[in-house]
Amino acid sequence: MKVLIVAVALAAALASSGCLVLALHPAYDDAGLTWDPALVGTWYDSEDRVTVTIEQGEWRSYRITYEHSIEKGVLTGYLTSVGDAFFLDLSPVRGQDYGSFLLPIHALLRIQRGPDRITVQALDYDRFATAAKEGGLAGLPATVDQKQNAVITASTPALRKWLRQPDLEAWFGAGAVFTRKGGNQ
Length: 185
Known about the structure:
mainly beta; eight-stranded antiparallel barrel
């Protein structure tokens, strides 16, 4: 499960089976969208042996390529601020059509940045799914789907409002630490 959190956290490899917390709508809006050139580069999580390369994407986005021994892929990421906290909103690669029956979902990660270190945290699935089933998400509409993913159905403004709550830290799981490989890129 730790590898799964790392996978979602900065688009690393989805290396284990498990359930996710996903959103139908993005967590970013025009006012909160930001772009930090310091994120661009190659990052490595030595504990789970995951490499993530972050490049500048289209329109204030990041192109995030991840590689783990059993999987690799590419996602689009948007950095957004809510109050003093920063979040990375990950979704399928922008500009590709996956067909009528596939929706572009969003995975939300809390991110803490340093010069050569990034700590990322995914929403705690167990706590979130239990609260979604019991209606305990303080007005944030969410459900659990057939695959047991917790799915946030709230609008972007409602999600951003929920992210401002004082006990937000408790809703996120353990952090995965990535360090910069090589020099600044």
